[in-house]
Design goal:
The chain is mainly beta and about 280 residues long. It has three helices and 20 strands.
Length: about 280
């Protein structure tokens, strides 16, 4: 499926002048092993995390549901990522040629790798070049988040990558996403009861597949080469959500993007950028 950057987000229906993205959020995560590096801090259950300049987020994402939804095409070749962040983190600047805005002074760089880390490919942000940056710079945009109540402003980092068909093998059911902060110190995570895992989206498509699927975030780790110390805010646990988490996670893994599409709610658009979320 081809996606087009428009108004600060990726959209399928740009001809209608509306830019929309959809987030499907699982209320739980499949348990993943702890990475070998002792410098990594588990931040998957944190609601917001401070990334100092040079810090890196590492997210392991299951893409096993792509093969389930695309028999005969088990390996995706196109990926889209989206990371939510608190709004109002700095001065806003206008993206040339649109009404969309981005936060000046912030930028990330992202890579996708197989779980073994044997190779990597960079994500790109097509709007970055319009703002005078290298395409590998992932900007922090201003968007709006609809979660069943009144829409609220939110920061969003977008990126996309097209892979060679040989990049992933048929046994690669988990990919690793690395996001390094190149700019000013930055808070990431949607807050307000979201975990960092549920603030991140990875969509897989291509590879002769016809159904776009959403990956399941298994773990999120913070690597701080600066040694600046972890800064996180952890949401209050919800016993009802915790009880349902394994069922919801299993549903996402087995039935994928299409099965949960009926849960998308309250599409809202402003300045050509919309984020819809169910949690």
């Amino acid at each position: 499926m081809d996606w087009i950057a428009h108004g600060g987000c990726y959209a399928q229906n740009v001809h209608k002048g509306a830019c929309w993205r959809t987030i499907v959020i699982a209320c739980g995560a499949v348990l993943a092993g702890t990475p070998a590096s002792a410098s990594l801090i588990d931040v998957g259950a944190s609601s917001t995390v401070m990334l100092l300049s040079g810090d890196q987020l590492q997210l392991d994402v299951s893409i096993a549901n792509f093969a389930w939804n695309n028999p005969g095409a088990p390996i995706p070749t196109q990926f889209l990522l989206q990371l939510l962040a608190p709004p109002d983190q700095g001065p806003l600047a206008l993206l040339p040629g649109s009404t969309a805005q981005y936060y000046s002074g912030y930028g990330l760089q992202g890579w996708i790798t197989p779980a073994d880390g044997s190779k990597s490919a960079p994500f790109e942000d097509s709007a970055a070049a319009r703002a005078g940056f290298d395409a590998s710079t992932l900007l922090l945009r201003e968007c709006w988040l609809a979660t069943g109540g009144d829409p609220r402003p939110i920061g969003v980092v977008d990126g996309s990558v097209n892979l060679d068909p040989a990049f992933l093998g048929s046994g690669d059911l988990v990919v690793r996403i690395l996001l390094t902060n190149l700019g000013a110190d930055l808070w990431v995570g949607a807050g307000n009861g979201y975990t960092l895992r549920s603030s991140f989206l990875l969509e897989a498509s291509g590879g002769n597949g016809t159904v776009q699927t959403t990956g399941l975030v298994r773990s999120a780790w913070l690597n701080q080469p600066s040694g600046g110390g972890e800064t996180v805010a952890v949401p209050e646990p919800n016993s009802g959500v915790l009880m349902l988490a394994p069922l919801v996670a299993a549903a996402l893994l087995v039935f994928g993007y299409y099965f949960l599409s009926r849960a998308w709610i309250n599409l809202f658009s402003k300045n050509g950028c919309t984020t819809t979320s169910s949690r």
